[in-house]
Amino acid sequence: MLDSLVTEAWHEIGRRTPGENEDGVAERLHSLVAHLGVDVPSSLAACRALVDHFVAGHLGEIGADGLEWLHRTAHPIWRPYVAPHLSNAVGRGLPIVEPRLLDAESDWAELEESLWQALVDSRRDHGVYYTPIEVVDFLIEQSLQQFRKQDLGWSQLRVMDPAAGGGRFVVRMIDRIFRDDSIPRLDASQLIGRITAMDIRPSALCATHLSVALAIARHGARFSECPPLDLRIGDSLLGSDPHWRSDQLDETGNAESDPTGRQWLCVIGNPPFASLSQNSSPWINSLMRGENGLGVSYTRKMADQVGPRKHWLDDDYVKFLRLAHWHVDRIGAGTIGYVLGSGLIDNTSFGGLRHALLTSFDRVAIVNLHGAVKRGLEIADGVRDESVFGIEQGVALLLLTKHGMSPEPLGEFQCCDLKGARHDKLQKLAAATRGTAPLPFDRVTPQPPRLIFSASNEPLWREFQNGIPLDEIFIRSSSAIVTARDSLVVAHSKESLVRQMSVLADAKVDTEQIRQQFFPRARSKKYPRGDTRGWSLDEARERLRAEPNWDLFIVPVDYRPWDRRVLFYASWMVDWPRREISDVLVDGNNLCLVTRKQMVPGRPANFFWLTTHATIDGIVRSDNRGNETLYPLTAR
């Protein structure tokens, strides 16, 4: 079926004439999401293909009432694609396209993701990784358990997924509510109108809408009793409500508001993972810092800690956590059930974040799913720790609860570790969801200053604190040199480096030839091969031609242990020259300690080296787990 979806979408893209706007839909959509790289023609084509295929395969299941509900509750973007099917069904009782053999249990979230990848191939760009059902159901069940402990009715529950994708969390929540015999059917139906799903991709929310229609039909609910979903398209990180919303809602954004005013917000989801994210705005930056009356700060520097590493706090999942935190604070009570990177558990940069969660929420619980490829953990009997998501980064499930009253100075904290094979982890989550084997949570009191979200690290941390910090022993330090283009500016000998620079400076050599020789692989879609945000190959070639004496820039460097090379040491050729320390090492008459502050867990802490020369990052260990720090004996 995917092949048919892709073919129809490409046909729709080809059919559209340049400038076709469909009553301003394309223009408005472009203003909302184009800055994030969402292709508008592909979005509209994907919506039409999804609607056509859905009606062709599932009209018999949802019936005329379901089709009318789809049309009535559709977002304005894809309502025009539903309208012909409704007219055709009412007039002739036939679908407008030829029926296709579809699986009645088709996963429309997965289909939409596969369709979008086939059209634009942007999953890695947006950091989107869809969630195993066992993880979805566990977070939903844990969130509902906290809600059931409150003296509240089902009409006071609201649900939100700020990065809904194809709607797995939304649809599984609806399934869970409808399966609960203790919830009156009308209350379950009305909950649909209090679910908010946000995303930057119209086709993802279109798939969510279609899946909800199937869920309603599957549980035998009356479409006439089901209000519209609150579907919002746009960049959630731009402001308090920067979305194009469904047009069937009241002024509060909900199909039905609770008359008592007391509400419980359940925020669930798997927000995007994207370090060094470009998805930023003054509003979310202020929210992260707690400025302009926007609440707590995630960037606060804790006592006895180094300052936060900005790029770790810039990961999209941290911003979406802060967004969910803000929404719960606005309501006054609720839960957050999120899939997040496991770095928030013990990463030093997240000390302010952990403090903000412990002081804002009455209960903080973490299920560490581990799975970081770089850690390479090995469990008993040779079983290796595996990622649940198939990504290199470790993952954790965060469960936060706010009762609405002022929490204690530090909220209750619980943690649980799941290590081993992916299948075993998912089975344990499924058993916990069913209630047959609850997870073994440990109750821990996180200790300042780091407030680690783990039961295992604190004894080692107290022992570590008895040592003397290197920053107190040495007067100055800095990271090692990072060139960002070793193949061009580093060589085994001065002669080789001069030849490389001669090729670079030769105006007869085409720039594209140089790119192919020195930069065979593109690092980013945003720049030509070899170029970065702060460096241009063309500009560097011009500057090199203007330099009369290259010898001034050629210095020896330690590249790897017992591997001394030469570097073209110019700030306009090297991204991070670290001159404040490297300059005192270039003559070879100093002594310098090289160390990695971040060690690989489970392995000896032996990442140390001594050098007398300027040093390229990666001399001790070349990976993405931080970089080397240089401590010169004298700083003159």
What is the spatial order of strands in the main beta sheet? 4-3-2-1-5-6-8-7-9-10
Structural class: alpha/beta
Low-confidence stretches: 93-105, 250-259, 306-311
Main sheet makeup: 10 strands, mixed
Instruction: State the helicity in percent bands.
Output: 25-40%
Count of helical regions: 23
Average residue-wise pLDDT: 84
What best-fitting shape do the alpha-carbon axes yield?
A: globular
Q: Which band does the percent of strand residues land in?
A: 5-15%
Q: Mind telling me the C-alpha Rg?
A: 28 Å
Count the E strands.
18
CA-CA gap between termini: 69 Å
Tell me what you see in this structure.
It contains 23 helices and 18 strands. With 636 residues, it is α/β, with parallel strands linked by helices. The strands form three sheets. It has a ten-stranded mixed β-sheet with strand order 4-3-2-1-5-6-8-7-9-10, with helices on both faces. A four-stranded antiparallel β-sheet has the order 11-18-15-16, with no helix packed on it. It has a four-stranded mixed β-sheet with strand order 12-14-13-17.
Concise description?
The chain is of the alpha/beta class.
List the helices and strands and how they pair.
Blueprint: H1 2-15, H2 25-33, H3 40-73, H4 79-92, H5 108-120, H6 123-126, H7 133-148, E1 157-161, H8 168-179, H9 185-191, E2 195-199, H10 202-218, E3 230-233, E4 244-245, E5 264-269, H11 282-289, H12 310-313, H13 316-331, E6 334-341, H14 343-346, H15 351-360, E7 363-370, E8 395-402, E9 412-417, H16 422-434, E10 442-443, H17 458-464, H18 470-473, E11 478-479, H19 486-489, E12 490-491, H20 494-505, H21 511-518, H22 537-546, E13 554-560, E14 563-568, H23 579-582, E15 592-596, E16 608-611, E17 614-615, E18 628-632
Parallel strand pairs: 1-2, 1-5, 2-3, 5-6, 7-9, 13-17
Antiparallel strand pairs: 3-4, 6-8, 7-8, 9-10, 11-18, 12-14, 13-14, 15-16, 15-18
